[in-house]
Design a protein that fits this description.
Number of helices: 1
Number of strands: 0
Distance between the termini: 188 Å
Structural class: mainly alpha
Shape: rod-shaped
Largest sheet: none
Order of helices and strands: H
Helix content: over 70%
Radius of gyration: 59 Å
Length: 144
């Protein structure tokens, strides 16, 4: 018989049970606890990462809304500034036209005044010139 049940078999079975209990107590159970703890931390980090991704998406949406609002305000300010600049340009153009018209009127008045003064001063000169021309013309005829 190959297998005999005697005291050695019982000692071997008892030895195996003690070895398994010590192995479980000293190595398998602490290793399993470490693996479970590590897995628990990894799961917690995944949950935190998911929460942070959700928060980042929320903040990104808020930032997009703020940027859109800022763009709207900027476009509105640009339109208002363009309208104000166009209005101011028209005002400047009107003033320039008015100033030019006033300058032209002043120039016409000055020319008319100087013409009147020249005409009033030239009356005696023209008379004297005419007399001189007649005398010269008459002397010229008498010599010829």
């Amino acid at each position: 018989m190959l297998l005999s049940i005697d005291g050695t078999l019982l000692v071997q079975v008892l030895n195996f049970i003690v070895f398994w209990t010590l192995l479980n107590f000293l190595f398998i159970a602490p290793t399993r606890r470490a693996i479970e703890e590590r897995q628990r931390r990894i799961d917690e980090q995944y949950r935190e990462a998911a929460a942070l991704r959700a928060r980042a998406a929320e903040l990104s949406a808020q930032a997009g809304a703020l940027l859109d609002e800022a763009r709207k305000h900027t476009e509105e300010a640009m339109r208002e500034a363009a309208a104000k600049a166009a209005e101011e340009a028209l005002s400047i153009e009107r003033r320039a036209i008015e100033e030019a018209a006033a300058t032209v009127q002043l120039a016409h008045a000055t020319v008319a005044n100087e013409r009147a003064i020249a005409a009033s001063k030239q009356g005696p000169f023209v008379t004297e010139l005419a007399r001189s021309m007649v005398e010269h013309a008459t002397d010229f005829e008498s010599v010829a």
